[in-house]
Each structure stands twice: as C-alpha cells, then as structure tokens.
C-alpha cells in the first residue's frame, strides 16, 4: 500500500522539464500579449487567447525537438558534432515558428477582425518574427543541452567518486585475501623449507611474494590494466602457489593475442584464479587443471575460468566477487556482466563479459 501511494504521488508531480517549459514560455509570451493588447487592440479575451496560443506554440515546437533529440541521442554526442546539427535545427524551428505564428495572426485578422488578408502574404511576412524565432529557439536549445551536459558531468563525477571508493575497498579486500594468515603461512613455510634445500628457488619465491604484495598495494590504484600485464601477475601468483600444490595445480591459458593490450579492471583475472584454487583445487586431493580462456565474442571480451569443484549453495558469494560485480557495474555502466555457474557436478565456470571498445586499448 505504501509503495502504491508513493508511486501515485510521484506520478502526479510536474517534472522539472514541464515546470521550466510552462514558466519560461509564460514569461516570454507576456511581451507579445502586451503588444497585441496595447498596439493591436485585441481586447482582454483575445489577448488572453493569443497569450495561451503563444505559450502553446513555443512548447509544441521545443517539445517536438526534445522528442527527436532524445530518440536520436543528441545529448550523448561530442560538442562539435552536436553544434553541427544544432545550427540547421535552430533555423528550421525558427521558420516553423514564423509560419505557425503568421497563420495564427491570419486567422485572427481574417475571421475575427474581418479584414481581407492574403494568406500567402501573411505567411511570408517574416520581419521581425524570424529574428524573434531564431533568438528564442537558440536560447531554448542551448539551455536544454547545457543543462544535460551539466547533468552528465555531475553523474560522471559521482560515478568516478563511487568507483574510486569501491576500488579502494577492493584493494583492501584483495590485500586481505592475499595476506590472510593461511596464505602467508603456507607461502613462508614453503620458502623456509627451500632456503636450505634450494636457495635459488627460495629467492625466486621471495621475489614472487614481494611482487604480489606490491601489486596488491599499488596496481589497484590504476583501476584498469592491460590483459598482458594482468596475466603477468597471474603467472607470478600461480608460480608461487605451485610451490605448495606442486603437480596438483595446473593452469592452461587460451587467449586471443590481439586482446593483449585491452584494458580490464585490475586484478580481476587474478581474483577468479585465486577463487578457483581456494574453492576448487585446494579441496580436491588430486588437484586439477584451471582453464583460462580470453576471447572476443559478439562485441564482448569474455574472460572464462573453469576449475574442478562444486558451488556450495549454502554459502553466499565472497566479498571479493561481490566487489568485482560492483566494479564492473559502475565501470561499464551495467553493460558488463559476471556469472558463476556449475557446468556439471564436477566443474565450475566463472565468466566476465566486458563490452569491447577501441577506446579501452592502451
């Protein structure tokens, strides 16, 4: 009941657009009402009628333009392309403004005032109405698009601020996931056992751990990273984990190499691989193979990670994956997607779909 009441109340409110239309054209039309009343002796009734018609004409023409502009998505165009379209549009609207007003005056002087007016001469009388039309349409259209440009900038600023906060939270989540006692304990124990047995491999392990910690701290600030650089982090992570899992952990990668320079959210692939190890490989005695596929499919970049295991429906999705979903939604304005599905009883697939755009390339 409360929801319905709120919906009904919101539907009865006049939008900002219509408030501006009514108030703006009402103020503009006052001048013409004063002119016809004092100069042309229209009388009170016909002055008010003319006033209402002037408001209606202005609203009709500009509203028709708004409908067209929304359908053509002009507000999303770059400023230069938009201006090229606005100049002829303003001229066309000004001409229509002249024709409609002249027809209105022709009807009044012919059928109400009883004068013998030629319709064609009335229509082609453009001075000073054309200048008035040009001025009014220019002001309205420029004000309309400036408002939308301002709104778009405000929305973009809010989204960037929100994305920055989520990215910072993602940094903490990722750092927490990688620096959890279990991970550090296993990594340091592996390194400890190698110090005497194989000092060279131990040094390599320390380098890998250092690189991963550095990436967790600093790479996240970049927001986006090329697939090539992201995979370098994944290789380091897998190499370090293989010191613990040995032959139980295998990684197979299939990638369209033309996508190497395409940018994706930082540490997103690493998160999927880590999730596959934690909830898949680690729980299986014999281990298994993690398959990573990166390809372009129907206008999207698909990042697919499959691993042996099952989805525990009793547990909710982890913070890291939730965070990834939020980052994708904001970064790509809900055009990207993340899914976690059970392909069969023994295989799980995590998939990220990101819109492919040339601008994403470095």
Automatic annotation (TrEMBL):
It holds the Pfam family His_kinase. It comes from the Bacteria. PANTHER family: SENSOR HISTIDINE KINASE YPDA. Residues 170-249 form the Signal transduction histidine kinase internal region domain. InterPro entries: Bact_2-comp_sensor_kinase (IPR050640), HATPase_C_sf (IPR036890), Sig_transdc_His_kin_internal (IPR010559). The keyword Transcription does not apply. This is Histidine kinase.
């Amino acid at each position: 009941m409360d929801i319905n009441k709120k919906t009904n109340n919101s539907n009865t409110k006049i939008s900002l657009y219509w408030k501006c239309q009514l108030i703006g054209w009402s103020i503009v039309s006052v001048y013409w009402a004063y002119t016809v009343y004092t100069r042309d002796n229209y009388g009170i009734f016909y002055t008010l009628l003319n006033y209402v018609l002037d408001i209606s004409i202005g609203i009709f023409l500009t509203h028709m333009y708004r409908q067209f502009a929304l359908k053509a998505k002009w507000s999303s165009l770059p400023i230069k392309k938009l201006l090229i379209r606005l100049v002829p549009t303003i001229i066309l609207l000004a001409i229509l403004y002249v024709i409609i007003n002249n027809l209105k005056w022709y009807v009044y002087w012919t059928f109400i005032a009883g004068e013998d007016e030629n319709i064609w001469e009335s229509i082609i009388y453009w001075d000073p109405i054309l200048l008035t039309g040009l001025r009014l349409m220019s002001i309205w259209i420029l004000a309309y698009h400036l408002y939308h440009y301002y709104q778009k900038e405000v929305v973009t600023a809010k989204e960037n601020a929100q994305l920055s906060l989520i990215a910072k939270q993602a940094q903490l989540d990722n750092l927490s996931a990688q620096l959890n006692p279990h991970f550090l304990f296993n990594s340091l124990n592996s390194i400890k056992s190698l110090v005497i047995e194989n000092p060279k491999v131990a040094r390599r392990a320390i380098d890998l751990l250092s690189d991963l910690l550095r990436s967790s701290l600093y790479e996240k600030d970049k927001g986006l990273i090329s697939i090539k650089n992201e995979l370098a982090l994944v290789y380091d992570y897998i190499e370090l984990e293989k010191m613990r899992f040995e032959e139980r952990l295998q990684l197979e990668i299939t990638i369209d190499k033309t996508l190497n320079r395409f940018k994706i959210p930082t540490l997103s692939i690493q998160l999927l691989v880590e999730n596959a190890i934690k909830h898949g490989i680690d729980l299986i005695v014999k281990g298994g193979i993690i398959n990573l596929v990166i390809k372009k499919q129907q206008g999207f970049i698909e990042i697919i990670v499959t691993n042996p295991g099952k989805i525990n429906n009793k547990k909710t999705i982890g913070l890291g994956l939730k965070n990834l979903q939020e980052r994708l939604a904001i970064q790509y304005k809900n055009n990207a997607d993340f899914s976690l599905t059970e392909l069969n009883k023994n295989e799980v697939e995590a998939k990220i779909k990101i819109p492919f755009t040339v601008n994403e390339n470095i």
